[in-house]
Amino acid sequence: MLEIRHLSYQVSDESGEELGILNDVSLTIGEHKFVVITGPNGGGKTTLAKAIMGLVTPTGGQILWNGEDITSLNITQRAQKGISYSFQQPPRFKGLRVRDLLELASGREGLTHDEECQYLTRVGLCAADYIDREVDTSLSGGEVKRIEIATILARNSGLMIFDEPEAGIDLWSFARLTDTFRQLHDEQKATLIVISHQERIIDLADEIVMVDHGVITQHGAKDEIFPKILANTVSGCSYMHGA
After folding, report:
1. Count of CB atoms within 10 A of residue 198's CB?
2. CA angle 14, 63, 210 (to 5 degrees)
């Protein structure tokens, strides 16, 4: 279970004025839940996700994972606790092959071809075409995104965080990703947090968290929150995008 208690993150602008990116955020996510965090751009969604992963250091509050206070742990220590993060714009690694990244993520050398194929197929990539390619500028942004998600699957983490996984991928691959998230949820092996504006991803969630101006404006079961999002879409106030 993930518990966020009164989390704040403030930065100073050029004039020295304090800006609240996250403002006293409290949130509890139960074991094996699929939670989508959504809301207007710039509202604090990604900062919240990065704070959970340890990519930004909160200026106040606590983060607990399975009852353990991980607020002071760095990203490596949190990864060792079973937390994974998929960036909206993944890094590239010249000199490292897709095979290397999957082995590093899984913690095992010499993955079988079937294992490699399984991870890549779940994100819409053919292992034969990609397994020996370097993760460099020869790959498109969508390809790099799918490879990173495959490494998250290979890690088999207890908490998987995905920041707008649909960004930069084609419609066919998007359909494969939604199938992947559905399967992960059905397997009940991990807690999933997905930042997304996509209706088809939001519709998979157990719970929806809406974040705006650094605060949680709504949090509840999908059946409670999703109709309100759709109503906003009809009224022209939506920040959602179709795929």
Report:
1. 22
2. 70
Task: Report which secondary-structure segment, H or E, holds 99.
Answer: helix 98-106
Domain extent listing, the chain: 2-235
To which residue do tokens 């157990």 refer? 206
Interior angle at CA 150, CA 148 and CA 154, nearest 5: 115
Amino acid identity, residue 69? D
Place of tokens 């930004």: 56
Flag whether pLDDT at 7 surpasses 90.
Answer: yes
- Quote the crossing angle between the two packed helices 141-155 and 113-121, to the nearest 10°: 120
Rounded to two decimals, the pTM is 0.87
Backbone φ, ψ for residue 209 (5° rounding): -120, 125
Q: How far is CA 110 from CA 64, 95, 227, in A?
A: 34, 18, 47
Q: The domain 2-235: what is its CATH number?
A: 3.40.50.300
49 burial via Cβ count (<10 Å: 0-12, 13-18, 19+): buried
Taking only the tens place, the pLDDT of each residue in 199-224 is 999 999 999 999 999 999 999 999 99
Structure tokens at 2: 């993930």
Q: Which tokens sit at 9?
A: 């993150």
- pLDDT (tens digit per residue) in 31-51: 999 999 999 988 999 999 999
